[in-house]
């Protein structure tokens, strides 16, 4: 199960990397520029956009999704503590507070693990959104430069 999850996350990251590279706007020489002129303008606008934004899409690697057990947020410990407290109360009613606390701690740990995985997923999505925003910023600057040189951008 964990291997399948790791493979899925890796494949998703690879697809996102290709998607980011495939976003370069399409450029049409609207004023009859030659292929050589278009190449020169493309290079100059790439450099200008990189200097202006401080972003180089060739070097901005997509964030690696966090994989493995979700740890570090204390969700499991908090869940275990809540579960144990609830288990003590239920166990006291049933006649064995210790067993109730143990069962509650196990259930609470599992619930905390679920929360930790959800938090980890949210962090992965936020990192991907920030990466995408950087790429978009670069290509807005690149497009502005190319349009200024007489190209149609789509």
Topology:
Elements: H1 2-21, E1 27-28, H2 35-53, H3 75-94, H4 97-148, E2 152-153
Helix pairs in contact: 2-4, 3-4
Mean pLDDT: 75
Helix content: over 70%
Low-confidence stretches: 16-20
**SS field, number of helical segments:** 4
- Count all strands and give the number: 2
Oligomer: single chain
- From the helix content, strand content and strand pairing, which structural class follows? mainly alpha
Beta content: under 5%
N- and C-termini, Cα separation: 42 Å
With strands numbered from the N-terminus, the spatial order across the biggest sheet is: 1-2
Q: What summary fits the major beta sheet?
A: 2 strands, antiparallel
How many individual domains?
1
What does this structure look like?
The chain is mainly alpha-helical. The chain has one domain (2-65, 72-153). The chain contains four helices and two strands, in the order αβαααβ. It has a two-stranded antiparallel ribbon. Residues 16-20 have low confidence and may be disordered.
What are the salient characteristics of this protein?
about 150 residues, mainly alpha, two-stranded antiparallel sheet, 4 helices, 2 strands, rod-shaped
